[in-house]
Specification:
The chain is an alpha/beta fold. It has one domain: TIM Barrel, CATH 3.20.20. The protein contains twelve helices and eleven strands. The chain has an eight-stranded parallel beta barrel with strand order 2-3-5-6-7-8-10-11, surrounded by four helices. Helix 9 links the parallel strand 7 and strand 8. The longest helix has 20 residues.
Length: 411
Amino acid sequence: MIRYFSSSGAGALLLTALAACGGAGGTAPGGAVPSAVSSTSDTAAPTACDAAAGLATLDATKVSLAQSYAKLFKIGVAINGSVYANRDPAAAALVAAQFNRVTPENELKWQSLERQPGVLDFAQADAFVAYAEQHGMEIHGHALVWHHQVPAWVFQNAAGGQATREQLLERLDQHMSALAQHFGSRVQYWDVVNEALNDDGSLRDTPWRTILGDDYLERVFLMAGKHFPDAKLVYNDFSLEKPAKRAAAVQLVQAFEKHGVRIDAIGTQSHFQLQSPTLEAIEASLSAFAAAGVEVLVSELDVDVLPPAYQNQGADLSLDAELSAQLNPYPDCLPRDVAEQAARRWAELFEVFARHSDHLHSVTLWGVSDKYSWLNNWPVRGRTNYALLFDRELRAKQSWQRVIEAANHTR
């Protein structure tokens, strides 16, 4: 039997580094090695900076991202309770003014909805959906199947051992059924499976794969198609600019088509750095997915301006490095030259996206402002990052202005 909590009095989840996709912890997995920077208490040389130098001169109350790109693609943002529960009214107003699409950071993940078997708590999810609908925004559900933020009981039998394939499929079916009954067609897109591929294109070892087998992706998408016939079904992953991983995602789409399994879109997360990946690699992925016959979504965009803690960093949440001055060089403000580099990078990215607007449905930023960026706590907790278009005081940055200007250049 499924029991539902009311939407009142539900306690908020304490999810600091989980705000993007899941918790950071443990050591680097194979293939991810520490970058060539010290993790000791070395002190970085102080850098003069002007906190106001990186701010926009355009009036952000009169120009919006959504309006500027209305003829090209939707502009989305990932939000949490600070926005939809109005704990930060200024942020809530900013989202309503600048964006026309929203993704919940955590509220639709299994751990948030069903911590105990058959006990569904939709309080926070309902508040998120209500905010989106109040402002006429498209809703992107994130994520049905993932190897993070899933309660342990999902993968266990009554004795605490590993669940059988039949048990896990039944639980997943019941979970999707509960979400479908509750939300109906109010969620327009669903990340059906999140991050199932390794960088070399092989299947990632997860409890889902271990229990269900290598064909689990098809089984999961078939199940999602049954429960969410009106929603677009998405495969979502990071580092899809890497050739082997990109090819594997294309092969996934092709195999689904061959076997009659519906998949509507690829979500390329796009957690980028100032110089990596190259614009050519980004374009190659957008072109490859469009050629495969699916919609393309830039699903979790940000631009990390800090030194990488690991080589081949990607967005693997198992990475967890020690805080040091060298890894946190801008605790007070971003130097003018780095702010300009970031603004140029953002403009170049949106110029690329605009060239692919025929197949690109949306570009979603992973966070409202620098204050709410997951990169402040991943892969190093306690850093000060500047990865988004609005600063910690919700002021539009030069990066925002350059993105607006890039839209004007495409007209």
